[in-house]
Amino acid sequence: MESRHRIRVGDASGMSDVATDAVDLVVTSPPYPMIEMWDEQFACQSESVAAALEDGDGERAFEAMHECLHSVWREVARVLAPGGVAAVVVGDATRTLDGRYRVYPNHARVIDAFEALDFDPLPNVLWRKPTNAASKFLGSGMVPPNAYVTLEHEYVLLFRNGGSRREFEPGATRRYESAYFWEERNRWFSDVWTDVQGARQRRDDGRVDDGEGAPPADGPQHGDDPPTVGGNDDGPGAEGDDGPPTAGGDDGPGGVVAADVASSHGHDAPTERDRTGAYPFEIPYRLVCMHSVYGDTVLDPFLGTGTTTLAAMVAGRDSVGYEIDPEILSTLGERVEGVPGLSRRVVSDRLDAHRRFVRSARADGTTFDYEATHYDFPVRTRQEREIRFRVVEDVTERPDGYRVRYEPAGE
Q1: Compositional bias (Basic and acidic residues) at which positions (predicted)?
Q2: Global pTM value
Q3: Domains of the chain listed by start with CATH number
């Protein structure tokens, strides 16, 4: 089995080399409007954004930034096949402009945009990033009333293109071989994800610090060890206590930490201009496994450092990625070199986790009625019997991206 991965440097509002209805799944996390680290990029794309920011008009800047995103969403509607799913990871923003502190609900604006393009919203996921911070709220510390809750969650918004689900021929081999385990389904299809930590990316020295190892196996079930995947990024605002009240008696944002609050992709404060907006490998990998099958094409119109491409490679899907900033994309080649090892760790962890699940379930008195066709373990449901994993054998660079070859795993 092989997969192909095309990389494009350019604006995804004009994906002219992607045919209409040629994509099966979209997995992306765009720059978050009203997060200060993305102001310059939005301002370069839109004079309206630049003017609104210059005027300190947050509401106008917010709408103008989302109009930039909407031009990409229109192209997504064109290239995504009927019944295909778009998964958008986005967080809200908090910011003080012209002396006014407020939240900018990016998730709501993205939902409105997709509904306007005739997508059907599906139940979404709250990704709650774990934090070890002892102090993590904004405002007046222990003194009411001017403290504010911290944004510790982001949204995984899911939309279907059109009203009909994708259809497959009866007994489609590639669909059943792409099955996930029963216990994975129970964890992945929960509406709150607390087992995925944020990721870090640095741009100053060109090196990556992302903590993106194999995804957690099946979570802490039946005595399993707790998941250990992901970086240790508590996200912006996670340690946002601005200490004692500021002079003048107004303790709210606008004093010590006002402009330093950001929620995008687990970013730290936007004063760290060398950071990009990476999300952890587990998120796109999980979404690719949940909403596509072997041989499908996955699109990321905001590719960044290429995490969606890596997830598609490991999952055995084709991919297309667009990134407007070649500097951000420059680390992808280095990351791709590690894909064979990452693939083996991911698959090994999933197989080992299922075996642990079987042992624990049997110890609790659970019986299994089905045996896996390609492996030496039972499964809970008929639909899991043909599950079959592939691992990356090698990756070859091509003029337009990469080709990946696979071999069967663990049989």
Answers
A1: 201-210, 265-276
A2: 0.82
A3: 2-408 (3.40.50.150)
